[in-house]
Every structure is written in C-alpha cells, then in structure tokens.
Amino acid sequence: MARMLLVLCCFSAPFFMDYRVQAADAAKPNVLFLFTDDQRADTIAALGNPHIKTPNIDELVRSGFVFNNAYCMGSTMPAVCNPSRHMMHSGMSLFRYDPKQIEGTFGETMKRAGYTTYHESKRGNTARKYHTAFDHSQYLNDQAERTSGHHGRTIANHAVKFLKDYDRDNPFFMYLGFAGPHDPRVAAEEWKALYDPAELPLPENYKPLHPFDNGEMVIRDEQLAPWPRTEETVREHLRDYYACISSIDFNIGRIIATLKETGQFENTIIVFSSDHGLAVGSHGLFGKQSLYEHSMKAPLIFSGPGIPHGQSEAFCYLFDIFPTVCDLAHVPIPAGLDGKSLSPVIDGKSTGVRDDIFLAYRNVMRGVRHGDWKLIRYPQVNVTQLFNLREDPLELHDLSESDQEQTDRMMTLLIKQQSVYDDKQPLIVENPQPATITVEMINKAAEQAANKKRKVKRRK
C-alpha cells in the first residue's frame, strides 16, 4: 500500500520539469485553494465512489495529481476543524502551531511573495490573526449557508465576482473555506433528488454501535443520530451528506468556469482538499472524533500548469499543502515548518517524503501508521487496536492480541513519534475507565451531558 502509483498521461516527467523551470522565469501562477469541511476522502466519483456525483472535482482528478494518504494529524479539542486549519495555515504540527502567529503563515507568505491574497471561510474555526495577512478577507454566515440548501453558493458568488473584476498584473492566491458538508446538512430538493437513500449502500464498516467506549461517545456529532444506528438512518444521512457535496461540487464548477471565461485558468494551480473526514455510520460513529481512516483522511488534489496527472500512496499531512504550494508557485518556503513539500513526489523524483503518520485526539486516542500497519491506542480505557490496512482497509479486524510482536513494534514507534511531535500524553494511565459500552449506557450518558449543558446555559 506504501508503493507509489504514478500514471503519466500524454507527456513525460522531463517535459513537466522543463515546463516548471520555464514557468519560474515567467509570471508566477495564480493559486485557487478549495477547502471543504468534513469531507471524507472516499466521496469523489473519479476516485472510486460510483454512488456520488462530483463531476467538477472529477475533472481535477483527471487532470491533476492525487495523494491517497493525506491525513489530518488530529485535534486537541472536539472541534477537529479548528486545529486542522491552524496546522494547514501555519505549516506546523498539532502541538506546535501558534494561533497568535502572523508572520510566516500561508497567507502572509504568499502576500510577501507578491500575490494579491483573498480569503473567505466560516468564522471561528481558525484564529483571525491567520486571516489578517489577506488583502481581501471576509466570513460566511455559516449557519445560513448550511441551511440555505445550496452549499457553496455564497462563497462561489463572491469568488466569481472577484475573478471577473480582477485586472492586476500580479497573481492572486485565493483561499476558499467552504462551510459544508458539515452539518446541518440541509440540501435543496434538486440535490437531494440525485440520491435515493434506499439505493445507497451502507459503509462496508457500518456498525449499529461502536464496539467499546472510545472516550468520546456522546460528543455533539455523535448525537446527530440515535443509538443504535439503524441502516435506514445511516442511508438518510448519507443521502444528505452526498447531496451537500454535490452542491459544493456544482459551485466549484462555477468558479472554475469563471477562470476559463476570464482567461486565467491555464495559469492557475488548483488545490482541492478538506479539513478531515467523517464517520457517517462507519464503526457505529457519526463524527470525526476518532483516528479511523474515514475520519482522519481527506482528499488532496493538485491540478494546474506543470502538474502531471497521477496518483500516489505517499504519506502526507494537510500541513504539507502550504510548503507544496510554495514550491509549485516558486515562492520561498519559510524556514522551520513541520510541513514538507510534496513536489518531489509530484515530479516523480521521490516516492515519498514521510515514513510514518502520527495521529492524536485529545487525551483519549493516539495512533501511528507505518507501511501497511496502523495502531490506535486508547489510554483512558486501556484498549489497543492493530490493523493491517493492506488486507483490512476498513479497519474491522483487530490483530493486537494475535500479533503481539507487531503490536509491540508499533507501540515503540508510537512513543518515538510522540517525542518527535512534542506530545506528552501517557499511553498508560492509572485507573483506566471500563471500555464496555451498551445502548442503555450511551443513552444515559447522552442525557447526563444534555442536562449538564442545560445547567450551564441557565447560569449564563
């Protein structure tokens, strides 16, 4: 699975490298960075999902370069979207980013390199200081956007206007942080009509209930559907999830069409990604607060001048996007970033820039991946999982007890990765909580959490 899968269409690698050199002497390319919220890596038709309709993202896949193992490193809080964006904008890892930083951030770096910088996203999921470096910065009313039924329409309207009005000689860097497909997933009938819940297959790792208490069983995201998760409920949620993604895809198409209409498409690098994935019924979960592949992986596509068509299984983080864009746009990469440029992989000079992936969520989960092997440790309940992702990509068969030697190797690697990324969380705690979970226990815990929340509101 760690092997490189690279397919070059029509041209050879030397052509693209020569083109890149020539482009460096010419005008810098524009950069359009499309960043969705809560979109799983497996929700793109051209990447193997025959049930979803994403024609415009499919075109980016067909023309660009895809990283199939792009990860959000994790989160120190339930709102995973917040640290994910902080890491992406700063190029720093989970325990090192500084939300007060301005100098050396993504937007500031591009601005200093001569780019006109444009930003629009929802409020609250990134420190505002990261956005102050943008020449044009505005925020969505994300709740209104999500409940309008037309995900992506407002942000696309603004982007289209900017592109039509843009008449400067210098290039632009446009960062668009879409509010969807994060819940509430309200889709207009035209998008919902694309999907019949009865015909949508369940996730292959669907479960009515997670097999044990992972430490985050009654978080807000998990209360979007009752326990146990029924097949009907999961299919309805998938319908709404896919409908919102199709709406965003349509509006991405409007933006790309405007690039073509205004003659800017041929000189624009387009990056498409998301802050992390989502469970939507996988493993009996609904949120993103887990270290399973469906929640920590995100799509990552680079398309544009000098970028060959291909796919790679190379490991990478979302905070690698920043230095990669710098490389592709001939912009100096700030010193000291944790992020690494992926351009050697895109150019075919290397099969990867990382040997391992480290994952973390609050104080309840830690994980590491090396080659085909992945280990997840739950210190608060003293549970360990080991998966061989080549043989078991859906993470259904825990091998931690049957392969103790491999489990020990991966635990040693996990401890080493914690040291590399300044993570102080113990992997063994005194008096761990029971891991046993039942529907009755979850419903009782959810009610207790709701009562606690109501009391807090009354005090305010």
Automatic annotation (TrEMBL):
Q: What is its EC number?
A: 3.1.6.1
Indicate the secretion signal residues.
1-23
GO CC annotation: what is one?
A: cytoplasm
Q: In the UniProt record, does the keyword Signal occur?
A: yes
- Start and end of every Sulfatase N-terminal domain? 29-330
Sorted alphabetically, the keyword list is: Hydrolase, Metal-binding, Signal
Source domain of life: Bacteria
InterPro entries documented for this protein: Alkaline_phosphatase_core_sf (IPR017850), Sulfatase_N (IPR000917)
Q: Name one GO molecular function term.
A: arylsulfatase activity
* Coiled coil (residue ranges): none
Pfam families the record matches: Sulfatase
Q: Which PANTHER family match?
A: IDURONATE 2-SULFATASE (PTHR45953)
Q: What is this protein called?
A: Arylsulfatase
